[in-house]
Amino acid sequence: MQIELAALKEVCIREEMELSRLEAHHEDTSQQLRAFQSETRLDLDLIRLTMAYLETLSGRIGHQAELVAQARERVETKRQELVRAVQERKVLEKLRERYLAQQAEAERRKEARTNDEIGITLHHLVKREQAQAEEWVAT
Question: How do the domains of the chain map onto residue ranges?
Answer without folding.
Answer: 2-110
